[in-house]
Amino acid sequence: MNQIVTFNYKEIWIMGLIILCLLLLSHPAFASSMGGGLPFDSWLMKIQKSITGPFAFTVAIIGLVAAGATLIFGGDMNGFMRTLIFFVLVLSFLVAAQNTMAAITGQGAEITKPSLTLTTSVREIKP
Q: Taking the CA of residue 111 as centre, how many other CA atoms within 13 Å lie in the half-sphere pointing to its CB?
């Protein structure tokens, strides 16, 4: 009934080295670097642009305010209506979150190199 399990640590060490070598020497996945070749990429990009655009952000902010005000000042509501308002609240938050985080973290900002006229005018000012 009692089984004694013994480990051969030399074999485990060799197997670990083989697995490490295979992981380090394997080629990266080329599918991740190609991109854009799937037939549904175009309409997915349209959906992504329509969800993250300025109109969707405005509608999401209005939805957040309206759903929050309804929950606060709505009085007695049945379960279906309350669930529907929570659904609008969460959906509005998800749509607004992308633009809000982009505004907070500064994604999309671009630092360009100075124009030629600016560098020449700075050189002329120096004595």
A: 2
| DSSP-assigned states of every residue in 12-71 | HHHHHHHHHHHHHHSPPPSHHHH-S-STTHHHHHHHHHHHHSHHHHHHHHHHHHHHHHHH
Domain membership of residue 75 as a residue range: 49-106
- Within-domain flag for 67: yes
Cα dihedral sign, 114-116-117-121 = positive
Tokens of 95: 């749509």
pLDDT tens column, 36-81:
567 777 888 888 788 778 888 888 888 889 888 888 887 788 888 8
Residue 73 in any domain: the answer is: yes
pTM here is 0.47
Cβ contacts of 99 within 8 Å, gap of 6 or more:
52, 54, 57
How many separate domains does the chain show?
Answer: 1
* 3-class state of residue 126 by DSSP: coil
CA gap 54, 60 in Å, rounded: 10
